[in-house]
Amino acid sequence: MSIDTDKGIDTTKNIDVDRLNELSEKNKADPEIGHKKISVKSVTESGFRNLNFARDHKPFLISEPHPLLGDDQAPNPTEYALGALGSCINVGIQAIASHRGVTLTKIEIELEGDIDISAVWGVGDLDPEKELGITTVRANISLDGDADDATLQKISDDAVKWSPVANTFIRPVALETSTTTGSSS
């Protein structure tokens, strides 16, 4: 998906580079500052519709498309995961470019993933040899600005390398679950 903008964007307009540098220096001086916990609460609204609550923002809806028995009223969980990846890379690109004094006039990130959903949430084929979920993500990053191609490429490469969400996709993540049942309350 591409959004055509006649004017382009000026990424330096809304980024306080001094505060960005202060934040960077603070985290370099005490790396523990960068260790945080984040949380989201997901609540079934109806069928495969889920309201998700993050901090004190309005809840955001996650649904499934009609072919997957949803009402198609919102992106599905995997589309949100790809959106989170693209947004995280985008933020990194803006921060790195601003820090390096590069004004970007275009940032577009198109993401596409290969996914195996044949287990159909545990009621379909459960062959243990299957790799369920996304196995490959392709990101096409388009940048333009007041820097040469090599500089723009380095900004893009560094943003991907330092992206917390990209690293979540790349590295194995420990998933710890617990279940509270109605009889436990």
Summarize this, please?
The protein is an alpha+beta fold.
Low-confidence stretches: 1-6
Number of strands: 5
Q: Which percent range fits the helix content?
A: 25-40%
What is the CATH fold-level name of the largest domain? GMP Synthetase, Chain A, domain 3
What would CATH call the architecture of the largest domain?
Answer: 2-Layer Sandwich
In total, the number of domains comes to 2
Number of helices: 4
**Strand composition percent:** 15-25%
The biggest beta sheet is recorded as: 3 strands, antiparallel
SSE map:
Blueprint: H1 17-29, E1 40-46, E2 49-54, E3 60-62, H2 77-99, E4 104-116, E5 133-145, H3 149-162, H4 164-170
Antiparallel strand pairs: 1-2, 2-3, 4-5
Name the features:
single chain; 185 residues; alpha+beta; GMP Synthetase, Chain A, domain 3; three-stranded antiparallel sheet; two-stranded antiparallel ribbon; 4 helices; 5 strands; disordered N terminus
Outline the structure in words.
The protein has helices spanning 17-29, 77-99, 149-162, 164-170, and strands spanning 40-46, 49-54, 60-62, 104-116, 133-145. The longest helix is centred in the middle third of the chain and has 23 residues, at 77-99. The radius of gyration is 20 Å and the shape is globular. It has four helices and five strands. The chain has two domains: 1-35 and 76-172, K homology (KH) domain (GMP Synthetase, Chain A, domain 3), CATH 3.30.300.20; 38-74. Mean pLDDT is 87; it is low at 1-6. By secondary structure, the chain is of the alpha+beta class. Strand 1 and strand 2 (49-54) form a beta hairpin. The strands form two sheets. A three-stranded antiparallel beta sheet has the order 1-2-3, with no helix packed on it. A two-stranded antiparallel ribbon has the order 4-5. Helix 2 packs across helix 3 and helix 2 (77-99) crosses helix 4 (164-170).
